[in-house]
Amino acid sequence: MNYVWKEPNESVLIQLMRNLIINQQFTTGLRKGLIGIVLVLLFGSIGYSYIEGWGWLDSFYMTVITVSTVGITEVHPLSDAGRLFTVLLIFVGVGVMAYCLTRGGEFLFQRSLTNVLGRRTMLKKIAQMKDHAIICGYGRTGSRVVAEMQAANKSFVVIEENEDEIKRLVELGIPHVAGDATDEDVLENTNICKADALVAALDSDAENLFLTLTANGLCDSLRVIARVHDPDNSRKFRKAGAHRVVSPISTGANQIAQLLTRPSVVDLVELVTKNKSIALEVFEHSIEEASDMLGKTLSEARVRQTLGSMVIAVKHRDGSTAFDPGPQTKLNLGDILVAIRQPEEGELTL
After folding, report:
1. Would you say residue 136 has pLDDT above 90?
2. Can you give the CATH number for the domain in which 317 is found?
3. Which run of H or E residues covers position 122?
4. Does 8 lie in the same domain as 114?
5. 139 and 97 co-located in one domain
6. Is the pLDDT of residue 5 over 90?
7. Which of 31, 171, 223, 259 is placed for a possible disulfide with 197 were both Cys, Cβ 3.0 to 4.6 Å?
8. Within a 10 A sphere around the Cβ of 120, how many other Cβ atoms?
């Protein structure tokens, strides 16, 4: 099934542009500084060789100890012209070195300031989040979940403790909290009590199980979706309070079985998924107090005309789900319509 492509978040683009500008400024300044140092060394070596008649090695060595101002004894006694040239070389060399150090200092300061301000902005944004998803682990599973959340334009925050992954999150401008996802303090920093769901996608089943217990202890109304490596552990996760347990092994095995038993159905799903000319979007629509559909049947609510979609299921407030509901199905407060439609005109698909 194709997902609707959306423009990247504006804050992400701003962060990436800011980092790009800083890196370009540093690269330009560093290049100029290196060129300046090479020119100074070349200028000094040629000068000493011409004025004093020294060899290239002695001239180069004298230039280095002069520019670096280390105060080592002169290689050979200097003439008056050589001393004047040394004074000139010191001023030029110190100026170039000062420029290089200044540019390096500016880069480090700007980088630190950008990181501090960016971090404060991110923490403030996370503190204001509501009904968001908490994705624990930015590995193969977590990164794919993040991509789908971005495509659906849903708010989320990532918890990750791997330094390399944290650097990627910073570069991409993805809201995140650095730390151990099983730590209560780290979870509280994600505004967990106002979150809608938590995805446990850590490296091991033991970590995900402990995370599920910890998250439910902090907020029992939180929906926990846990990824398990061993399908036999699924029952343990449900006992721990996980609302949904996803096993990639079981899912893959079921798909293989579908290919063996009902290949035509799988072919149709793959056609809709891979063919970019067939764009479909599955979405949810909640029946709230202000909804015009409240208390009406599907026929009376004219869902196809109102939402421009076809209802494939109705999830009732008591947890039961009616698949392929008939036109006389009544819509009550808290019901969720699961519908399918084509994306709006002008939207691109992945």
Report:
1. yes
2. 3.30.70.1450
3. helix 80-127
4. yes
5. no
6. no
7. 223
8. 10
Residues 35-74 as b/e (b if ≥16 CB within 10 A, e otherwise) read ebbeebbebbbebbbebbebeeebbbbbbbebbeeeeeee
Residue 107's closest CA among 27, 16, 171, 14?
27
Query: Which of 11-20, 25-34, 191-200, 314-323 has the weakest average pLDDT?
Result: 11-20
User: What pLDDT digit, counting tens, does each position of 205-238 carry?
Assistant: 999 999 999 999 898 889 999 999 888 888 999 9
- CB distance 340 to 309 below 8 Å: yes
Are 240 and 308 in the same domain?
Answer: no
Two tokens, residue 36: 């300046």
Name the residue with tokens 């683009």. 13
Residue 253 lies in a domain: no
Both 75 and 169 in a single domain? Answer: no
140 and 233 housed in the same domain: yes
Provide the residue range defining the domain that includes 296.
279-349
Per the model's pLDDT, the better-predicted residue between 107 and 32 turns out to be: 32
The model carries a pTM of 0.55
| DSSP letters spanning 265-317 | HHHHHHHHHH-TTS--EEEEEE--TT-TTTT-BHHHHTHHHHHSSEEEEEE-T
Gap between the Cα atoms of 136 and 339, Å rounded: 29
Number of domains in the chain: 3
Q: pLDDT per residue over 50-85, tens digit each? A: 888 888 888 888 888 887 777 667 777 888 888 888
Residue 260 lies in a domain: no
Is there a domain that residue 76 lies in? yes
